């Protein structure tokens, strides 16, 4: 029960904060009604009269019931119109000001004037606020005209009664304008910072693309060129096949490098047009590693099925990076690659023994391979564990969450439906 009342109180509080301006206007309108009605009653009693003189004289000729009826109409209708003007004080404060002025001129009723002056000063531009000084003086003069006694004190009292709401409205309007200017300045500064960040990113992309083209692409092109020459002039068939593998791998690397450079230079998120690797390409990846002299055993458990393209591409890159690291840091060591097609998870395990070819020069690494794999796996919700083995080898395990088999089966069935011609 307490929780229900707490939720209701919070909902009421949120509703009140959302509609606080409307509630304030309603409060002002209701609060002004008693004062306006009291002023109307005083006016109808004949204490003040300029606009009411002719009306009261005419009402005296009528029957008492008719005069009472007209008086009640004035007491009820005029305050209602003033209350409506108060409700519209934010959108049309000039109507409230003029209605208050007419109310004062006709009935000597100045009780709606403070709200009118405050609203006009708070919601209208500075150029129009000069009219308020004239309005205050006019209100005071009218009140002094209606008062038949102590007219000297009526003017300063009325001015003080009207000046304070005017000054408060001027302060509120100036503060609102200042806050609005600060907000616009902050938004403009944020847009400028965003544009500067985009320009810096574009410049950095261009610089990286230029360096990769000048350094990496040039050296890979030289490797492909020398491998092609070695393939032609190889003394034996084994050397020729190795040179052919180097040449084709280098060409593929150059093609992928061109796509990466294109994305960096364009600065967009356009996907490469070439087919992206999937799990079915693991066999070709292992064959290339074997052709390069590695001993790789590929095994799989579970039922293979189609998975989201990003998941399959990530799994392929994990195995590719693991084989590359094994070739760099453990040349000649056997490598075991195991793929487990689970119902909820795709698990990749790559393990290699210690290096057996101690005569080969170690290949320097960038140090960012495993970091890049963790980031790539995190994008698809996967995890990775990698650590060295006691015998000098290395063990890596990556797990990627996958949709249930029923969901992927439905997706495969939908993809196999031919579109109508």
Automatic annotation (TrEMBL):
Molecular function via GO = ATP binding; phosphorelay sensor kinase activity; protein dimerization activity
Gene Ontology CC, one term: membrane
According to the entry, every stretch annotated as the Histidine kinase/HSP90-like ATPase domain falls at: 312-402
Q: Which UniProt keywords apply?
A: ATP-binding, Coiled coil, Kinase, Membrane, Nucleotide-binding, Phosphoprotein, Transferase, Transmembrane, Transmembrane helix, Two-component regulatory system
Q: Which InterPro entries match?
A: HATPase_C_sf, HATPase_dom, Sensor_HK_TwoCompSys, Sig_transdc_His_kin_sub3_dim/P
Regions annotated as coiled coil:
172-199
Q: Which residues cross the membrane?
A: 21-44, 64-88, 95-118, 153-173
Write down what this protein is called: histidine kinase
């Amino acid at each position: 029960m307490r929780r229900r009342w707490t939720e209701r109180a919070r909902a009421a509080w949120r509703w009140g904060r959302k509609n606080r301006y409307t509630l304030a206007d309603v409060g002002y309108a209701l609060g002004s009604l008693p004062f306006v009605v009291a002023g109307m009653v005083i006016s109808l009693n004949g204490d003040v009269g300029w606009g009411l003189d002719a009306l009261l004289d005419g009402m005296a000729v009528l029957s008492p019931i008719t005069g009472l009826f007209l008086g009640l109409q004035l007491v009820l209708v005029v305050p209602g119109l003033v209350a409506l003007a108060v409700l519209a004080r934010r959108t049309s404060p000039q109507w409230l000001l003029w209605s208050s002025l007419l109310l004062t001129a006709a009935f000597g009723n100045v009780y709606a004037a403070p709200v009118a002056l405050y609203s006009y000063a708070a919601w209208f531009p500075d150029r129009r606020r000069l009219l308020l000084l004239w309005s205050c003086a006019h209100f005071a003069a009218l009140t002094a005209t209606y008062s038949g006694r102590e007219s000297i004190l009526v003017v300063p009292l009325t001015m003080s009664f009207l000046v304070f709401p005017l000054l408060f409205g001027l302060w509120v309007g100036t503060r609102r304008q200042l806050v609005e200017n600060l907000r616009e300045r902050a938004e403009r500064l944020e847009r400028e910072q965003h544009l500067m960040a985009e320009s810096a990113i574009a410049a950095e992309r261009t610089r990286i693309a230029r360096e990769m083209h000048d350094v990496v692409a040039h050296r890979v092109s030289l490797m492909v060129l020398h491998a092609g020459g070695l393939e032609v002039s190889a003394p034996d068939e084994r050397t020729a096949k190795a040179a052919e593998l180097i040449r084709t791998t280098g060409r593929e690397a150059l093609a992928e490098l061109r796509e990466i450079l294109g994305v960096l230079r364009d600065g967009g998120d356009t996907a490469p047009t070439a087919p992206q690797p999937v799990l079915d390409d693991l066999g070709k990846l292992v064959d290339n590693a074997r052709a390069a002299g590695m001993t790789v055993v590929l095994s799989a458990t579970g039922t293979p099925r189609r998975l989201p393209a990003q998941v399959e591409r990530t799994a392929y890159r994990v195995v590719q990076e693991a084989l590359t690291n094994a070739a760099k840091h453990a040349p000649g060591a056997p490598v075991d690659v195991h793929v487990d097609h689970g119902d909820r998870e795709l698990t990749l395990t790559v393990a290699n023994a210690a290096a057996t070819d101690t005569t080969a020069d170690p290949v320097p690494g960038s140090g960012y391979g495993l970091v890049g794999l963790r980031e790539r796996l995190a994008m698809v919700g996967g995890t990775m564990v990698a650590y060295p083995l006691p015998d000098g080898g290395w063990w890596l395990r990556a797990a990627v969450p996958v949709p249930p088999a029923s969901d992927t089966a439905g997706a495969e069935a939908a993809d196999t439906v031919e579109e109508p011609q």
